[in-house]
# Entry
Amino acid sequence: MTVLDTRRARRKATPGSKPAANDRALAYQQTRRDHSLELAEDYLEAIASLIASTGEARAADLARHLGVSHVTVIRTVARLQRQGYVTSRPYRAIFMTEKGAQLAERTRCRHELVQRFLTALGVPEAVAGMDAEGIEHHCGPETLNAFRRFLESASTRTGR
# Structure
């Protein structure tokens, strides 16, 4: 089952209807896929942030930024290399590939959208930032578009 199949199943669900067993299985499969991509997205977002602020992303800085061990960073960066998101050599900075930079940018935009949405609902900025860090990975395109429409509608009403 592909991500597209899962998203099609989401669209077919009607409000208030009970999902069929197959739809529930699709939802669980999507959640597992989201979780596996979540780590890559968090790392790429952090690498992009470090490069933007300091000019480079080193494993030690990444470990400090994410609050994980140096060994965890090394293992995860190796996996990201195998997946084609980053390049790195021992004792050197970590560089994103075009594929990695694109995913980091999409993740950053999703994070900002979710954070703006939560803030518009009245969630304090700091809490919205922390909550968005988890929510951003699990929202489908329809949900994100609904967030955008809500924010556009709210800005039209308030004149912002």
